[in-house]
Amino acid sequence: MYVTIPSEQTPFAPQLRCARKQATTVTKVFKAGNNLYFEGDKVDRLYQVQSGVLRLTRLLEDGRRQVIAFGFPGDIVGFPCDGRYHTDCDVLTEARLQAYHLSALEGENGNPELHKELLQAALREISAMQDHFMMLGRKSAVEKVASFLCVLTERMSSDTGSRNQAFLPMSRSDIADFLGLTTETVSRTLSQLRKSGIIAINNIHTVVILQPNALFGLSQGREDIDCPSKSGLHGLARAC
Amino acid sequence: MYVTIPSEQTPFAPQLRCARKQATTVTKVFKAGNNLYFEGDKVDRLYQVQSGVLRLTRLLEDGRRQVIAFGFPGDIVGFPCDGRYHTDCDVLTEARLQAYHLSALEGENGNPELHKELLQAALREISAMQDHFMMLGRKSAVEKVASFLCVLTERMSSDTGSRNQAFLPMSRSDIADFLGLTTETVSRTLSQLRKSGIIAINNIHTVVILQPNALFGLSQGREDIDCPSKSGLHGLARAC
DNA sequence: CGCCTGTTTGAGGGACGTCAAGTCCCGTGG
DNA sequence: CCACGGGACTTGACGTCCCTCAAACAGGCG
């Protein structure tokens, strides 16, 4: 999952249709904390997320980390390049994954239909990543966090049934490394949004969106974060 | 082109082999300043760069811009998503491009070999973009500019014949919007590299790499930019 | 209950952005 | 040929957003 301009988000990757019939596909359940693969491993299969959340990361030698994406239901992870994975992939919450063996994609026994769908998935991936460039390169901390919450709400709404609640299965430092910030800045920004009445933080992994429009506005850089007065609570002269 | 960790760079996309034989492919020359397509245009063809340099950009409503990538010889641009381009594409220096009509890729008359090669190209693109995430999210201005120069040197070395010279056909603000900086910061950083003796700036579009190893070190965050003394000019107590 | 890890909050500093004033380059025209 | 003008680039002064460092706090687990 990449943070995009929420309204422009393309539909989730549909289930790879034809592949379901293949003997090469298996559905498996992975526990939280499991590793699916490491950067550099030879690619033998791709995974489509059916439930749960994955995390894709890259490391620099000096320890700096970038979370490349989160894998939500519908997403495909494990795209190979030159036969190797180029991120680490870990399971954040117990996940049901459909595995596609690479042999089903290559060589003479390759399934052309599956091949075509994989290309579509890769092209969607490229588009989503381009959106994410804009965010990493050009957005402020508030815009980044607001965008993140907006997209999380959309992506997980099917699970929770509610568009007003975001479930954050990942740690603050995962969020930070995804958005190109520090944990402290992520934490501070969330507090700021809470104090201004735009969100409420139920518990560390659950954020309630009190003012979706304001949040969306912030994600686009269209409004400044400000006093609670902006949300109708005039007269409250609390610290902004 | 994405700025990657230079040493890990994957080989350029090889020419789409089978496609050359197709009647659907044409080589065309485009002048600097030409536009190839806009974001949102219907995709009718992809382009492989044979010579020259392209620029792929995205815009936010408020005018903020992100240069998504530069298209150098070997690169393929115009990957569709849901049938549309999702960047603008402009020609920076006169370019010879091979156009692949999308009809050659889709439907019943689709060429399966070409299809397969396109998937490989898309997967390479994804890998390169993931590298670029790391840079946008986690690197300092010096690291970004140094990385950019390193990759430029590699990508263009076949043209210039020299690995010690980088040709920068794009403007400073293109570089800034690619790296997630401002023109001023790009300019200052280049000056800083020049003053420390790591590069020389022949003219606005030509940078000579005097100390490739130092530059590479900076791109990796392994060394601090410092006095010229570091490069052997001990005793020079000039401003660092 | 105490430890441990993750999170929040605070104070302070630094890197980069903003704003503004040069400087350079190049094309145009006298 | 030089003067002029305009746009891109460079440089400087200053501000600010976010990072760094540090301490307090909170929740989970023995």
From TrEMBL, chains A, B:
Instruction: State any GO CC term.
Output: cytosol
Looking up SUPFAM superfamilies in the UniProt record yields: cAMP-binding domain-like (SSF51206), Winged helix' DNA-binding domain (SSF46785)
Report the GO molecular function annotations.
Answer: DNA binding; DNA-binding transcription factor activity
Question: What sequence ranges are listed for the domain HTH crp-type?
Answer: 139-213
Ranges for domain Cyclic nucleotide-binding: 30-78
The UniProt keywords, alphabetically, are: DNA-binding, Transcription, Transcription regulation
Q: Which Gene3D superfamilies would you find in this protein's record?
A: Jelly Rolls, Winged helix-like DNA-binding domain superfamily/Winged helix DNA-binding domain
Entry-linked InterPro entries: cNMP-bd_dom (IPR000595), cNMP-bd_dom_sf (IPR018490), Env_Response_Regulators (IPR050397), HTH_CRP (IPR012318), RmlC-like_jellyroll (IPR014710), Tscrpt_reg_HTH_Crp-type_CS (IPR018335), WH-like_DNA-bd_sf (IPR036388), WH_DNA-bd_sf (IPR036390)
Instruction: List the PANTHER family.
Output: CRP FAMILY TRANSCRIPTIONAL REGULATORY PROTEIN, FUMARATE AND NITRATE REDUCTION REGULATORY PROTEIN
Q: What is this protein called?
A: CRP/FNR family transcriptional regulator, anaerobic regulatory protein
| Source organism of this protein record | Roseovarius marisflavi
